[in-house]
Amino acid sequence: MHRRPSSRPVRVLAAALAAGTLLTCAACSGGSVDAGADGASDVAASPLAAESPLASPRTGKSAAPALTGAGAKAALITEADLEDDWTQVKDAAAWGDKLLIGKVDVGALLTAKTNAADCQKLLDALYDDDLLGKPSGASALTGFEQSESRLLYQVAAYDRARLGASLNWLKTLPVKCDQFTATDSKGGRRTVQVIEDEVPAVGDARQGLQVTVTSTGAAQPTTLTLELAVVRVGTDAITVTSGGLDGTESGTTRAAVEQGTSHLKDVLAGKTPPAQPGNLD
């Protein structure tokens, strides 16, 4: 998630004349000053971004706008952003699949035993819908259902360093947690597999995973398959968790990522994303 005053008056006069010339040229040309090395954004400096209730300007070297509560809500996707017959729900915050509840069997871990903590963290984060850790600022979430599948969409502001660390952590999981076993409170065993998944080339950084959890205790094995996609836009991020007992639909995940990133960029530019049918209060 740094001049040494001149001791000669002639240098001072020359500098003053040079500065006056530059200011005069800029005024004549009507051009804007480039953000240059400090990374200041034209959008952040605009009156629209400064006055928008969706994104308020941050202070400091980088003038990137801060995500507000209203902005986070406005950046959410709706049914119109997804393919097929997804239905938006109001209880997504209470979701949590019981197949994700379990303790990693360290002895059965195929990779180094020291990776058990990372695999446990992944399971817990998936159940708690907390893949990137706790947001440092505004956040909002929504969810959709279709048959036995669910899609959870989150947008939030994060501490820059922690957000970067979380993305780097996700990149390591296909190696650290490629396959492991977890047990529930009754001794039931689940086989968990983690592989890297493709994410559309949007935002400033991104990471995708596919997680498969198979319960082997019952006569008929039950498999939960989830697609995870995270996209960073500045110090904000969107997280998509999609899937269920019927498997995953990559087209839906892609649509959620692309449309969601577009909405978030609009909000951070001081704009209101286009109204979509199907919004829930």
Architecture blueprint of SSEs:
Blueprint: H1 9-29, H2 42-45, H3 47-51, E1 55-57, E2 65-67, H4 69-74, E3 87-89, E4 103-104, H5 116-128, E5 139-146, E6 149-157, H6 160-176, E7 179-183, E8 189-196, E9 205-215, E10 222-233, E11 236-244, H7 250-268
Antiparallel strand pairs: 1-2, 3-5, 4-7, 5-6, 6-11, 7-8, 8-9, 9-10, 10-11
Give a verbal description of the structure.
There is one protein chain. With 281 residues, the protein is of the alpha+beta class. The chain has helices at 9-29, 42-45, 47-51, 69-74, 116-128, 160-176, 250-268; strands spanning 55-57, 65-67, 87-89, 103-104, 139-146, 149-157, 179-183, 189-196, 205-215, 222-233, 236-244. The strands form 2 sheets. It has a 9-stranded antiparallel sheet, sandwiched between helices. A two-stranded antiparallel sheet has the order 1-2. The longest helix has 21 residues, at 9-29.
Number of helices: 7
Mean pLDDT over the residues:
80
Counting helices, strands and paired strands, the structural category is: alpha+beta
Considering DSSP H and I runs of 4 or more, what fraction of the residues is helical? Answer: 25-40%
Approximate shape:
globular
Oligomer: single chain
Compute the gyration radius: what is it?
Answer: 24 Å
Characterize the main sheet.
9 strands, antiparallel
